[in-house]
Specification:
2 copies of one chain form a homodimer. By secondary structure, chain A is an alpha/beta fold. In chain A, the strands form 3 sheets. In chain A, strands 2-1-3-4 form a 4-stranded parallel β-sheet, with helices on both faces. In chain A, strands 5-6-7 form a 3-stranded parallel β-sheet, with helices on both faces. In chain A, β1, α5 and β2 form a beta-alpha-beta unit. The longest helix of chain A is centred in the middle third of the chain and has 17 residues. The model of chain A has no long low-confidence stretch (mean pLDDT about 90). At the A-B interface, α4, α5, β2, α6 and α11 of A face α4, α5, β2, α6 and α11 of B. β2 of chain A pairs antiparallel with β2 of chain B, so a sheet runs across the interface.
Chain lengths: ~325, ~325
Amino acid sequence: MPTIQDIAKLAGVSAATVSRAINSSGYVSAAAREKVNEAIKELNYAPNKNAQYLRTGATKNLGIVSTQFNETVLSRINPFIDEAYSAGYTTTLFITNGEKKREREAFDLLKSKQLDGIFLIYRANDWHTLESYADYGPIVTLHNVASRRIPSVFIDHYKGMRLALEYAWDIGCRRLLNVYGTPEGLNTQRRLDAYRDFHLEKGHSPYSSEPFFHIGSDESIDRLIQWIASQKEKPDVITTHSDTAAALIVSRLRRSDIDVPNTTAVIGFDNLPISDMMNMTTVDYGIEDQGRNACRLLLHHLKDESKPLIPLSFKLIKRGTTK
Amino acid sequence: MPTIQDIAKLAGVSAATVSRAINSSGYVSAAAREKVNEAIKELNYAPNKNAQYLRTGATKNLGIVSTQFNETVLSRINPFIDEAYSAGYTTTLFITNGEKKREREAFDLLKSKQLDGIFLIYRANDWHTLESYADYGPIVTLHNVASRRIPSVFIDHYKGMRLALEYAWDIGCRRLLNVYGTPEGLNTQRRLDAYRDFHLEKGHSPYSSEPFFHIGSDESIDRLIQWIASQKEKPDVITTHSDTAAALIVSRLRRSDIDVPNTTAVIGFDNLPISDMMNMTTVDYGIEDQGRNACRLLLHHLKDESKPLIPLSFKLIKRGTTK
C-alpha cells in the first residue's frame, strides 16, 4: 500500500503538498496538483478512509439492528439501503438473536463513531437503555415508543387490524380468531384493542377469550393448528400480524386437511411477496416505503439533505385465502 | 464527547498516561489505571474506533456484496453474520442493483481499509476487474470462477440438476422442461450440461430445444406460463434453478388453471423456507452452511482462528409439487 511519502517522492513535491492536494486544504499550484494526481494514479493510491473519518467525525455508515432477519425485515431493508446509498451512506447490518449484550455492542458503535445513526427494527433491550444512546447519534424505530428521543416511522396497527376484521365480517365470518406476536409489543396492544372494540361495536362475542401470543415459529404454529383441529366449531377466519406467520398457518392447515378458505379463511399482514406467491389475502401499508422513511428520518437528523417522508395508509388486498 | 484530555484532567494524570492505559501499551501504575478507569466511567468515554483501526490497519468489518437481496441471499447471509460475529467481526451489506460502478465502490473499501474482506454473492463487473482487488483483502464467492485469487464455496449444480432430472424420470415424467437464470452464469452452463448429458444417456429427446434463460422476475415467468399454456403437449415437469422462481411458477400455473402436480410437476432448488410453506419438492445442499463456509474461508485468509469448512452435498426433498 503506497504512502503519502511514496507519492511525494514520485511527484517530486513535499509530503505536505501531497497532503494539501488530497485533502483539498490550502494552496497547491496547478502544476503540483497535476503531478500528485499522476503519481496517485500510477501508484494506485487510495486514501485511508479511517483517517478521513477521524478528521471529520462522520463515518457515512448507518446501522440496521434487528433481533432476527426474515422476509418482513428484508422488505424494509432493501429500500433503506437504496435510500442510504443515494445519500452517500453504506449500511451495516446487526442481527442480535435477541441477545441484549450483542444489541448494546451494536449501539456502542454510535459512541465510537463507526455508525452515524441506527434503524432499530426488533429490539432486545428495554427502551430506557436504548434511549441513552441517542446522545451519540440518531436512532429511528418503527415501534410506537413513547420517547421524544427516538423518532418512529410507526404505523398504527389498530386501523389495519380493524380493516381485516371488517372485511372478514362482510364476507360472513362470525368466528374470528386473531393471533399475535410478542405480548409486550405495542403493536400487539393495539391489535388487542382493535379485536375488543370490534366485538363490542358489533355486539358479538369473541370466538376465543384466550389470545394466542408468540405466533411465528414452526412450533408455535404447530400448537395452534393442533388446537384448531381439536375444536368442534373451528374459526371461520384467522387474522394475523404477519404474512410469514399467515403463510405457515395456511400451509399447516392444508397439511392437516383443513380447507382454506372454505373451512377457515386466513388474512395476512404486510403484503410481502410470499402473500402474492401463496395467493393470500393480506393488509398492505407500504412496508417498503416504511423502510425508505426510516432512512430519510435518520438523514433529517444527520442534517443531510433529505427527501420528505412518504405517507403510509392501509389497504386490503383480496386474494384466494378468503372466500 | 469527552476527549483523552478531559479524562486526564478528571483523573489527575497526564494525557500520555491515559493513552497508555486505554491502548494497553507501556507502563501504567495500578493506582493511575484505577483513576483513569473511574474517569472513563464517569465521563461515559468511548475510544474512537477509527483511531484504533488507523493504528492496527484492520477494521474487523466484512462486506457482503450482491446485485440483489432476496430470500436466496437471505438464507446465506444469516449464518454468515452469525459466524462473523463469533469471530468479532461486523458485516456491512452492499446491494449494487447490478450497477458496475456501485460494485466497484464497495470493493474500493478494501483499499481504504474499511473492509477486511468481501463475500461476493451476485456480481456486476467481470471477474478480471474484481480479481485486481484481491491485492487489498480476501474475496470469497460461491461461483465456480477459474481464479486462483478468488476462492469459492461453490457447489457444482451439475449434480443437483441430475438428481432432480433422475427423480422426475423415475416418477414417469418424459417431457422435462428446465429453466435457467443468466446464460453467462457458470451454474447455468453446468445445468445445460446436465440437461444435455441426461437426455443423451437416456437416449431421449429433450422436450424443448430452446432453453428458457433469465427466469426469475414476474415478467419472465408470465411469459413462460403463456408459452406453456399455448402448448398442446405441456411439460410434465419443470425443473428450476431456484425456489423463488419455482414458487412463482407454481403460483402462476395454478392461477392459469394448470394443475400442479397432475398436469405439470415443479421442482425447486435451494430448499428455502418458502419451499416448505408451499409444500414444494426441491433440491437441498445446505445453503446455510454455504454462507457459513464463506465466512470461515474469509477468516482463514485473514489469518484469524477459524473453524474447518462444512462439507456440502445434494439431497432431494420430496413434497407436494411432484406426484
